[in-house]
Amino acid sequence: MALRLPSQFSTPRHRRRGSGAAAPAAASAGLSWRRSLAADALVSSGCSSSPLASSPSPSPGKSHARPLVTCTAQAPAAANLAPGTPVRPTSILVVGSTGTLGRQVVRRALDEGYDVRCLVRPRPAPADFLRDWGATVVNADLSRPETIPATLVGIHTVIDCATGRPEEPIKKVDWEGKVALIQCAKAMGIQKYVFYSIHNCDKHPEVPLMEIKYCTEKFLKDSGLNHIVIRLCGFMQGLIGQYAVPILEEKSVWGTDAPTRIAYMDTQDIARLTFIALRKENANGKLLTFAGPRAWTTQEVITLCERLAGQDANVTTVPVSVLRLTRQITRFFEWTNDVADRLAFSEVLSSDTVFSVPMNETYDILGVDSKDIVTLEKYLQDYFTNILKKLKDLKAQSKQTDIFF
Questions:
Q1: Torsion of CA 283, 284, 285, 286, to 10 degrees
Q2: How far is Cα 125 from Cα 137, in angstroms, rounded to an integer?
Q3: pTM of this prediction?
Q4: Are the beta carbons of 215 and 45 closer than 8 angstroms?
Q5: Average pLDDT rounded to a whole number, residues 78-102
Q6: Alpha helices per DSSP H over 156-233
Q7: Lowest mean pLDDT segment, chosen from 201-205, 225-229, 326-330
């Protein structure tokens, strides 16, 4: 089916910039996109993968094999926008600002003197901590395109950290929402767009989230927006809840028997390097991959946490074969398809792969010294010393059975 942006997306009357004659009417801006949906398969830009056989209209609860994500959409054509009110280069919009990475991006931006606006979905518990830091919070939802344009008024740069929640269909936010956001950014003359993706996403079309990230990269490139794509390997912060806290609380630590190696990086370093890239003209249009100084296996991370905590971990190992079987089973039921999509990503992380890349070229582009990047040893040592040890002592004194972080 053909979808076109509402008129308010393609006629930026409130803010028009550029050189030369005034732009033609909205239709000439070319800000439309076409896609087709076949048996709930997504079709987007520049990517393809072989779909699995599926029934046209499966009934709820009945088994079926779900097709893989494929992408072939058209990016918006370049618009000739007339001169208008200039926008300060320090005005940025952070999308996904309440997440693990997004909140660090917001903090770094504020510390460096940027005027930060955060796009936050309406929620029962407002993101008051962002306001307390000094950011402006605006309510919008990527799954509702009509809410997006107002958030972009007066914005110079968009930093896109958003990823759909685990309970949401992946394509709703990570593809359809991102397409709408990029189109709005193009229509409204946004000067730069930063998109966070996943390392090696182009090599795993069988994983919906990775395929969508790769398709979004291509859609953004074809849009003509001045952009930077940053692929990430893994966050050090994620290891705290996965390994450090369970070890201190003497609870089970879950892992797999795969020799996967991941070069985890501190999200504070990711945020810092992002703003260095924003100020570097030679980073425009680049595809950068951020990786930590060393790639670690699950067992190596657990061993490091055990040493720093001073106690052994209760490790429960899940064979990769069990993870793979679970994914295949969940594929058979319509109501578990999204669970299967998430398991597909977990399966890649549990395979015999290395999520890392040499950073020498990236350091040269950004003018960064590798010695300034936090190592996993240093990060976990600081965490255990300054936080978890104190909480552990507090727990022992109060004889509480549960502590929530």
A1: 10
A2: 13
A3: 0.75
A4: yes
A5: 80
A6: 170-171, 178-187, 208-223
A7: 326-330
| Reduced DSSP (H G I as helix, E B as strand, rest coil) percent helix, strand, coil of the chain, to 5 | 40, 15, 45
The percentage of the chain sitting over the pLDDT mark of 90, rounded to a whole number, equals 47
Residues 151-175 as b/e (b if ≥16 CB within 10 A, e otherwise) read bbeebbbbbbbbbbeeeebbbebbb
Q: Helix, strand or coil for residue 109?
A: helix
**Domains of the chain, with CATH numbers?**
85-232 (3.40.50.720), 235-264+292-355+375-399 (3.90.25)
pLDDT exceeds 90 at position 28: no
**Average pLDDT of every residue of the chain:** 76
The Cα–Cα gap between 157 and 140 comes to 17
Give the HSE-up count for residue 383: Cα atoms under 13 Å, Cβ half-sphere: 23
| Tokens (6 digits) for 112 | 């460096």
Query: Quick one: pLDDT at residue 320?
Result: 55
